[in-house]
């Protein structure tokens, strides 16, 4: 019987290529692993139940990846820790699983790795290639904060071991995903027992642990000025970075996610996504959940960044109606850039901005947030800057928040600012 967990489910694209009428198409390393468990654990039945559940969510890659993480852990835990068939777990078993998620065994925790399995073969994938497990993979991952890594690198220090801590948000996902899985097994007639996750008592005991207040993921005005100015300097020094400057300005100005630039299966952003109604410019987008929306566009963005970028492409200053030119494209003119490539470009701008701040004598306190920032911070930074000058309903619409309370709680924290100012100037001594 195996002693260690391995990855059971492959990448999104290869999972979708499986023949779901049989198990023989699975990777041999997976089938061998499953068959090595005692028959009373019914490892194959548990695997097929999870596979069927994931198949029902295989129309969306992000959802599939998230769900795979949690149900894969559950299956492995049932086989290796509980030593009980997955479909025979009960409420107390699930409570033990939730406790395990909060504090997994050290051998179940490791660094984030990119590949689920390692291909053995030539440079191009072929049917004769074989796959072996990635020995570095673990069911639970520790992601060291970018800020901590950068400070350690700057001071040539090794990172100390960091204990695994599951966030309250992740624990909420465990409840939701595993609860959905067990409901699926009931609906499919795989079990007649009650949903053991939904029977868990005192859910708050799990969900409220390890909760910390998140600091706002927004740059300071000084840091943002360095970022946009650095992108402008890069564009002046090397023409190919005109595209980099355009991407930075677009993400910030339109409050975009990276997926809004990359596009989706049923929609790709083009210059024709910009629309002029005779008075105002709008950007039409298909966002999360395939929801169409339009975002109001500020004048400075049109004049200083959109026109500038279009000039470098030898295009007229302003987009035409239904223009098919890709919004961003490769240096060689091919349509579209990958999510990973865009993130790498933005990280390059952040790194160069940080170096400029150091070279110009800015303090550690002034540079601090820039060490941990990521592409998504541009969206939050713009909304944070704009909130004092925009009606909450307008910002909610352009941010595409379903609930106004989300916009209110994130960007209109005037009571917090007032509370902080009320104590800021109060002394400690000589209060008589």
What can you see in these coordinates?
The chain is mainly α. The chain folds into two domains: 12-155 and 164-207, no CATH class; 221-419, Orthogonal Bundle (hpI Integrase, Chain A), CATH 1.10.443. 48% of the residues lie in helices and 6% in strands. The chain has 18 helices and seven strands. The chain has helices at residues 12-16, 28-35, 43-55, 61-80, 91-102, 146-154, 168-187, 204-207, 221-237, 242-253, 258-262, 299-312, 339-359, 364-372, 376-386, 392-399, 404-411, 414-424; strands at 109-111, 117-120, 130-133, 140-142, 274-276, 281-286, 292-296. The strands form three sheets. It has a three-stranded antiparallel β-sheet. Strand 6 and strand 7 (292-296) form a beta hairpin. Helix 6 packs across helix 14, helix 9 runs antiparallel to helix 10 (242-253) and helix 9 packs across helix 13 (339-359). It starts with 11 loop residues before the first helix and ends in an 8-residue tail after the last helix.
CATH architecture of the largest domain: Orthogonal Bundle
Helix content: 40-55%
**Topology, number of strands:** 7
The number of distinct structural domains comes to 2
Assembly level? single chain
CA-CA gap between termini: 74 Å
Structural class designation? mainly alpha
CATH evolutionary superfamily of the largest domain: Intergrase catalytic core
3D shape: globular
Number of helices: 18
**Uncertain regions: pLDDT < 50 for 5+ in a row?**
209-215
Mean pLDDT: 85
Main β-sheet description:
3 strands, antiparallel
N to C succession of SSEs: HHHHHEEEEHHHHHHEEEHHHHHHH
Q: What gyration radius follows from the Cα positions, in whole Å? A: 25 Å
CATH topology of the largest domain: hpI Integrase, Chain A
